[in-house]
Design a protein that fits this description.
This protein has 458 residues and is an alpha+beta fold. 32% of the residues lie in helices and 16% in strands. It has helices at 11-22, 63-73, 77-84, 97-109, 140-150, 195-207, 215-221, 230-235, 296-303, 328-331, 356-374, 387-397, 423-444, and strands at residues 4-7, 27-30, 54-57, 86-87, 92-95, 114-117, 130-132, 155-161, 164-166, 176-178, 188-193, 271-277, 284-287, 314-316, 319-326, 337-338, 341-346. Helix 2 (63-73) packs parallel to helix 11. 46% of the residues are buried.
């Protein structure tokens, strides 16, 4: 049988190669290091953890913990090794990253069906089954070939993204639905500010602490004058934001009367922060124009000064960093196959998922489906009630025009039949439903799960 080629030896590629070999199919795993180093990596090992040694919270009433558990039950090699090389980190799954990566490298290199090939792939193979897992630092040559395949409109080389909040955490007694000048259906949630509130927000934003961009990211960031960080916009002058993303023109809360009435001028907001619906169900909302390089703790502190967002629950913080990713809603199915070429699959941060565990989950699904395609079997999609299924459903069905990378979070899961106000209890119910549905799905597809006792919050 012809081998399947996996391009990229990060977490997604490592997981994909293992799942392909596990299905009895030979695989060639291409990794360009150490022949060619990326700007962020420091070793030649597979699955190197670049940013931190943590996979996130372990408890299954946390989004990352539920995703850990789904992957454990599905036989993930990456999560298995993470458990094996775990170090104390409170409630998080953290690892001795050097030992972790070295163990995975040796395990895959010694597998009889896996050939670890140290070379840079500059062109996507035209024949056979191929899995792309080249990550956010895809090499220039392969990025150029991806442009040929996808079209430039479907790729991004810098991730300038605004925070995303859970809809239920927005104070609807303050925020109101409206479109500017009442044009069309009301499509935005609007958080109005009076002058005093605006000036307090502006001052706090100007003083907030920024995260440092890496040297190779600063070069890319220079070209994004059109999507400046909101804090940089604030520093350019007291009213700059009011003539940009916070302009109040044409927006008025119907509860206070007709905005066209001159007598209502004093009731018009001084500034307005707009939120745009991020998913089909309206569970997630994007803070429009708030791409930012503030530290995450600072983002929460400052953005919760916005009226209506005082108790906002953030599922993704704003970011600005180097990140090559494709427009997955245009290009991929929920099984991570390219729509125009089903024998080509992709996973990891390249497809617009965020975080170590999400990259591993993508590797599991892309590797599993690559093996099934090679064997002439129908590819799999996971139930949308699971964290894995909802994540890949989101990246394949989001609005392409506004698509930005997404981490695992409970906001993308379908609502429960009965609304539960207590957040911990609600997340526990999400977990119960997910793992029950995963068991049923696995039984239907003859997939053996590795059952174990669940991890719950203290």
């Amino acid at each position: 049988m012809q081998p399947i080629h996996v391009i990229g030896g990060g977490l997604a590629g490592t997981e994909a190669a293992w799942q392909i070999a596990r299905a009895g199919i030979p695989v060639v795993l291409h990794e360009m290091r150490p022949l060619k180093q990326s700007p962020a990596h420091h070793s030649e090992h597979l699955a190197e953890l670049v940013c931190s040694n943590s996979f996130g919270a372990q408890a299954t009433d946390r989004a990352s913990g539920l995703l850990h558990e789904e992957l454990r039950q599905l036989g993930s090699i990456v999560i298995g090794k993470a458990n094996q090389h775990q170090v104390p980190a409170g409630g998080a799954l953290a690892v001795d990253r050097g030992v972790f990566s070295q163990d995975l490298t040796e395990t895959l290199a010694n597998h009889p069906l896996i050939e670890l090939r140290r070379n840079e792939v500059t062109h996507i193979p035209e024949e056979g089954v191929v899995v792309l897992t080249t990550g956010p630092l895809t090499s220039e040559a392969l990025s150029t070939d991806l442009l040929r395949l996808t079209g430039q409109a479907y790729m991004s080389f810098f991730d300038a993204a605004s925070p995303i909040v859970v809809g239920d955490s927005i104070n609807r007694e303050v925020a109101f639905m409206a479109s500017r000048y009442d044009r069309g259906e009301a499509a935005y949630l609007n958080c109005p500010m009076n002058r005093e509130q605006y000036l307090q927000f502006w001052q706090s934003l100007c003083e907030a602490e920024q995260a440092e961009l890496k040297d190779f990211e600063r070069e890319t960031a220079k070209f994004f004058e059109g999507c400046l960080p909101i804090e940089e916009m604030a520093r350019r002058g007291e009213d700059t934001m009011r003539y940009g993303p916070l302009k109040p023109v044409g927006l008025f809360d119907a509860r206070f009367g007709d905005f066209k009435d001159p007598d209502n001028k004093d009731k018009k907001p001084y500034a307005v922060v707009q939120l745009r619906q991020e998913d089909r169900a309206g569970n997630l909302w994007n803070i429009v124009g708030f791409q930012t390089n503030l530290r995450w703790g600072e983002q929460k502190r400052v953005f919760q000064l916005i009226p209506g967002l005082e108790n906002a629950e953030f599922v993704r913080m704003g970011v600005m960093h180097r990140n090559t990713f494709i427009n997955s809603p245009e290009l991929l199915s929920a099984g991570l196959q390219f729509k125009t070429r089903p024998t080509l699959l992709a996973a990891g941060q390249l497809v617009g998922t965020e975080g170590y565990t999400a990259a591993t989950a993508g590797g599991w699904l892309a590797g599993t489906n690559a093996a099934r395609v090679a064997l002439g079997q129908a590819p799999l999609t996971l139930p949308v009630t699971t964290m894995m299924g909802s994540l890949f459903d989101f990246i394949s069905s989001a609005e392409p025009k506004h698509f930005q990378p997404m981490p695992p979070n409970f906001g993308i899961l379908p609502a429960l039949p009965t609304k539960i106000k207590n957040k911990r209890e609600r997340y526990g119910k999400y977990c119960d439903r997910s793992l029950t549905d995963l068991l049923t799905w696995a039984s239907q597809h003859s997939i053996q799960l590795k059952q174990r006792d669940l991890v719950v919050s203290a």
